[in-house]
Protein 1
Amino acid sequence: MKRNVGTIDKAIRILVAVVVVVLYFTHVITGVLAVVLLALAAIFVVTSLLSLCPIWLALGVSTRKKE
């Protein structure tokens, strides 16, 4: 698969995931909202590690620098 997630995009995704996890463990977010945000955070981490975002792929967007 063609990678389409750049360095800054990865950093933002990881940062958002960390913030969500911290909010969850400090009980700032709870219930259904917490579950939804944790699932989104997990998706952000996976897409960051793989450097591939299916939504960006479908939209034809790439945040990687041209080689």
Protein 2
Amino acid sequence: MVMVLSAIGLLIFPSKMLAVVGIVSNEQMDFLLRTAGAGVASLIPGAWAARTSIASPVSRAVLVGLAGYMFLSSVVDFHAYTQSIVNVASIPSIAFRILLGTVILWLMRKEMTRS
């Protein structure tokens, strides 16, 4: 559900999404955020399909990719924060994505050791 809301926000309300972290938007930024939203939206079907079973290699690959997205996007956001590109409002999002990526990998490992 979080990914669906993020994708909707990025695709439909890019200026408002940027305003949360203190960035004033323009047409180019809206375009780039909508492109990112399309990427997030494209992850949703795979994540939905992988939610019930990680036994298949495809499901594991989807989940590892999703965790990788969570970690890498957090690194990008943290770098933007350290360069004063975004404000402190980006920190909860960074922390949440790191936590979510960690939980995905932990649950995968837990399930694989059970199998």
Protein 3
Amino acid sequence: MDKRKLKIARAKIDRLDNSIFNLIKKRTKVVKHMLSLKKFKRQIVDQKRINEILKNIRKKSILHGVDPKITSRIWKTMIWSFVNFQRSNFKKK
């Protein structure tokens, strides 16, 4: 194992993680705005929209040579994490 190359690769992962973090921060802001537009808690989960997103991610993954099992799992986790966030932050109007 080449420790120098490993250190460089880990630094690249750290930079990517920072970029992902900033995107999640932006996504959270949009989700908060969307939540403010919802009048009923039942509006939080749109299964049709979730299925559409997962279908598109799968297609995009295959097209770009990324394992769709990985991307699907990541997106499902992200979607349901934001669903739970919305459920816990929903305030009746």
